[in-house]
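Q: I'm writing up a methods section and want to include an example of the input and output format. Could you take the sequence below and give the corresponding predicted structure tokens, formatted cleanly so I can copy it straight into the document?
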Amino acid sequence: MNVSKLKGTGVALVTPFHKDGSIDFKSFRKLIDRVIDGGVEYLVPLGTTGESVTLTKDEKRAVLDMVVEVNEDRVPIVLGLGGNNTQEILHTMEDTDFTHIDAILSVSPYYNRPSQRDVPARTGSNMDAETTLELAHDIKNIIGIKEASGNIEKAMKIIKNRPKDFLVISGDDTIALPIIACGGDGVISVYANAVPKDFSEMIRFSLEGNFDKARKLQYKHIDMMHAIFVDGNPAGVKGLLSVMNICSEFLRLPLVHVTKPTLNKFEAMLAG
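A: Here is the clean output for your methods example:
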């Protein structure tokens, strides 16, 4: 694929739920249209922000079908497809229709804490820059990394030594601008669920080298970007979306919604 299609802002879509835990497809449809209309470059359904580990196979298929249906090929789709059972992931890939899917975002295996030679995980052991670069140079269908370590120095090492057209994408909203300033290619954003227009504009300004305009938007939203992670993800962004009347705050266990003081903080910040 043309990797330039994945430069800019990808939004890690939440999966809205009703109070009884069933998927709220009406709100999901509204959310998809809203982020596309807000100018994001691509969609990332069924990642960790989408609570994919709590969804059944049938629910995952229904979520993906809705994303494809509502999107109507307007923007690329990067499908979240990963886990700690490699063989099961391979079977899922065999059973998945990739007709309207442009790429896969595969989380490093969690819980198992594999070594660097296996597939290390941010969730158990951090993937070294050297490991990323080895994979980038040796395996041509690995087209980029969502770098979520929060380590700017590590991101720069990857950017400096990566092969041509290998994407380095921030996995952290708050440091997306500095990673782009170092030569990165964009972000897979949680915050863009709620504020797609300003956030995607900030990323585009950064990619254009217009950091004066980018910084204005960064600092306009930086406090809220921090606030949505105080009680965890995706609880925070779902709480914000509920205050904005976009979807409910409901999650599936073991996750729980944000505290009332956090919701009050969201309301005050939006009002101010």
